[in-house]
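Re: the request from the purification team.
They wanted to know what the chain is likely to look like in 3D before they choose a buffer screen. I agreed to run a prediction and write the result into the notebook, where they can find it.
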Amino acid sequence: MDFIIERKKHCIAIEVKAAARWSESDLASLKVFLESTPSCRAAILAYNGTQTAQLGKKMWAVPLRMLLSYE
């Protein structure tokens, strides 16, 4: 897990990958964190691809450029 953003009693977990594609093994730490942390509202795999995708309950793949955009 690269980042955990906390606000009050809830959090969001973020795993950052430099690759343009992600694999199932890239989701391992996010899945473990979600299962062991009921207060986690979402888990995000930030990667260098172009597509946003829901990967499971409370889990998404999001392009890094979308997360870092100021527009």
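For the purification team: The beta strands are 3-7, 10-16, 40-47, 53-56, 59-63.
Please add any questions underneath this entry.
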